[in-house]
Amino acid sequence: MAHLRESSDKALKLLRTLPRVQIGNLRPNPNSKQNDKRGRAQHGGDKHGAGNKGSGQRQNFMRLGYETGNQAFYMRFPYEPYYKGHHMKREYPPISLLQLQVLVDTNRIDVSQPVDIATLCNSGLLSLKPAELQYGFQLTDEGLDNFKAKINIEVQHASEAVIAAVERNGGVIRTAYYDPRSLQILANPKKWFEKGVPIPQRMLPPQDAVEYYTDAKNRGYLANPEEISKERLVLAQKYGYELPRIEDDADYEMLTAAKDARQLFLGLEPGWLVNLVDKTIVKLKKT
Amino acid sequence: MAASIKLMTQTLLQRSLTALSQRSLHTQPAIFSSFRSSRQVQPLEQYPEVEVVHNPPEWKYVERLLPPQTVPQPVAKADYPSGWKPQTADGNSDGYFVARTKNHMVPVYLHTRHRGQRRITIVRRIQGDIWRLEREVRDVVERARNGKLCATRVNELSGQIHVHGDYVDVLREHLKSKGF
User: ipTM > 0.90?
Assistant: First the structure.
């Protein structure tokens, strides 16, 4: 046993002189590291997992879904092109009537003035990205029963029930088209005024939107006003409410205020230049 | 030589300063403008005749288009059809206080993780006796889930209570009914 004690003593003695086990004097586990070089010929050269002959050996990775001459599975059946032209479609981000009522209740928008995209964006709670093909807001019917605001609002799309909900309270709703450049300006009017560029003219709607915006049922801004007043009555009868008379209203002027089809801002004509620092407007001289 | 350079820079500086003070109409300083984006000046005959109107009657329309600098204070009304309520409680009777957010909303949020599989309701901005509110929250949530137990987690330092599951509407209504 003496030699055993001797060797254990020796080992302990050795251990005392050795450094501690720490990250600096450890080496990786065996075979845990892969060599980034593949040897050729006698230096370990073989197939290297690529197999023998043909497409596999040449590492000819085919495109996803390709079945080497068969009619590929993804092309085998007819389909409905749901997303056809998706990159061209106009998007109208939704705001619900509930959201609008919250904005009114928390004093974020002033309903004593006409409400449009600029008002909604200036509230700081909604934003519009015309660069992402957002063409304005659509008013949706969530919170329809609790909507009680009398409002003159201009949106880009609204359903029949929403129009009825607004008109039942004695309000006015209008759907209007804005071209992307106008939307960019309306999304942040202050930034535009700071540029020192005249207010541009608003463009007319594209051909596929003309039908919507000339229809009195949608309260389109290009529709005949007489037809709109007739449709207001028709909708009141359909939904069973008494249409409040706007003519007798104290806010008649606010409720009937509307932009021209070529106008961007209410009360400001295209071609004018607004100077925010000097509080002046540069107008065209009338001859 | 050095003295003459100093004199030159001084006169240049003076000239630019006088130019700055003489500019009556506000224009953007040339150093901040981009020559690439600005249009070149055309012959003056091509421009229409304009007049600068001071104190224009249309300025009220411009003011409407400028965003408010701060979040406006809510106006007291008889009723709020949207269900939003102003804060009425000051926390003296309850021992705790839940502050409103800068947008005057109740600070109850839903956090979803693991592809919507884990839903955690978070009540934030709690001051005072957070453990008392936690007991109340647990009570309300357990009533909403028919007496089944409710798991909560309290972060005393940051004043937050995390509740397992989606109980945002329940807790928000509860806090509103207590006046927070």
Answer: no
The nearest CA of chain B is from the CA of A128 a distance in Å of: 15
Residue closest to A189 by CA, chosen among A122, A272, A107:
A122
Question: How many other C-beta atoms are found inside a 10 Å radius of the C-beta of residue B175?
Answer: 23
Which residue in A has a C-alpha nearest to residue B79's C-alpha? A105
Q: Which of B27, B58, B82 is facing A281, going by the closest CB pair?
A: B58
How far apart CA A64 and CA A183 sit, in angstroms, is 41
Q: Which residues of B touch A150 (CB under 8 A)?
A: none
User: What b-and-e string marks burial along B128-145, b requiring 16 or more CB atoms within 10 Å of the CB?
Assistant: eebeebbebbbebbeebe
CB pairs under 8 A between A and B: 100
Q: Give residue limits of the domains in chain B.
A: 96-177
| Predicted local distance difference test score (pLDDT) of residue B139 | 96
Q: Is the dihedral of CA A212, A217, A219, A223 positive or negative?
A: positive
Q: What residues does each domain of chain A span?
A: 88-282
Assess whether pLDDT exceeds 50 at residue B121: yes
Average pLDDT per run of 10 along chain A, which is 287 residues long? 81 89 87 87 86 86 90 89 89 97 96 96 96 96 95 97 97 97 96 92 95 97 97 97 94 95 95 94 88
| Class at the top of the CATH hierarchy for domain B96-177 | alpha beta
pTM above 0.80, yes or no: no
| Contacts with B103 from chain A: Cβ below 8 Å | 106, 125
For range B57-65, the mean pLDDT: 96
Closest chain A C-alpha to B100 CA, distance in angstroms: 13
pLDDT of residue B15 exceeding 90, the answer is: no
- Nearest chain A residue to B84 by CA distance is A102
Top-confidence range, B10-14, B26-30, B37-41 = B37-41
A240: left (phi over 0), alpha (psi -120 to 50) or beta: left
Alpha carbons A117 and A183: distance in angstroms, whole number? 8
